[in-house]
Amino acid sequence: MSTPLLDVWEAASASPYNPTIGKGSQFTVGAILLLTALLLGGVFSLNLKLVNVPLLGVPASLAFGFGAVYMICAVGVYV
Fold this sequence. Notes:
By secondary structure, the protein is an all-alpha fold. It is 70% helix and 0% strand. The radius of gyration is 19 Å and the shape is elongated. The chain crosses the membrane at residues 27-48, 55-78. Keywords: Membrane, Transmembrane, Transmembrane helix. It is found in: Membrane.
């Protein structure tokens, strides 16, 4: 007797998941993103113009967020 969930399980076992960024390069990607966030955040903090929020602040915060997650995963702390 076959169930739909069992069919999905069997089909998934034939094609394993391959991540876009492999385990070996997570440290490099995380370090680059964190350095980018540091640079963009530094430039953002030096300028006082309001237009810099979407141009510098948003990419800096996104780079920091993704960089922190990649770095956490690269050093072996799983979230």
